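User: What would this chain look like folded?
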Amino acid sequence: MGTFLAVGTAARRRRHVALAVGTLAVVGAALVGATGASAGPAFSQTMVVPYDGVNPCTGEPITGTGTSHFLLSENLSASGNLESDLDVRVDGLKAVGVLSGKKYVVQEAFVHRFVFGGASEDTFDIVAHYVRVGEDGTLILGDDFYEYLRTHITANSNGVVTASRYDVNPMPCQ
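Assistant: Here's the prediction, encoded as structure tokens.
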């Protein structure tokens, strides 16, 4: 999170997939050897973050600061189900266009939730919304960036996928 990449680039998707795989590995390693039901304490962190990027809709570099919220919770149920929730958000980010001086308001969210054991499910959402504030008429359409990736998969206890869904925003520049 924190950098614009060209819409639909492989690099952006690889970064998000790598984060998801890393999260799975950390959560799995943390619960190895656990017996019975246990709920790990949630880990929460909030911090101010710098931001530099490029609005892919206008090509303009932007820079600013905002607040990042990170929350991770995990649980191993008595029946052996592994449950995990990861929620990372950037809120209140105010940025400025380096060339135009235009102000931007930025929000990003990365959410990954899964349950493994018997029947399993995995949900993964990424949302990025960048709004250029204070229009002067030079750009009427296409200067705001809104991108999302939403996936969900459900499998039965034999590991057979019983439902899946994949959604992306077909028109990110609005």
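The chain has one domain: 10-168. If you want, I can go into more detail on any region.
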